[in-house]
Amino acid sequence: MGGAALYLISPIDLVPEAILGPLGLVDDAGVVAAVVLFVYKLVKARRILADGGIEVGRPGRRSPREPDRR
Q: What is the DSSP secondary-structure string of 10-50?
């Protein structure tokens, strides 16, 4: 996602808007669509794992369901 953000703000473009006008935005829209699809698949996979009883969290972070181990 960071790479997509860098590409979108970068002045270097595969299809320059200055030459092709609005048609030059097609590659930018493709990058946005790819990121949206990637995030959608991540959320869907996480939901499937959670429905199967597998907790997926960030390392070092306790789940709200996990008891305190003091």
A: -S--SS-HHHHGGGGGHHHHHHHHHHHHHHHHHHHHHHHHH
Domains of the chain, by residue range, sit at 1-7+20-55
pLDDT (0 to 100) of residue 40? 97
**Is residue 63 a contact partner of residue 57, using CB atoms and an 8 Å limit?**
yes
Q: 62 pLDDT exceeds 70?
A: no
Tokens of 69: 């181990």
Tokens found for residue 2: 């960071």
The distance in angstroms from the start CA to the end CA of the chain is 38
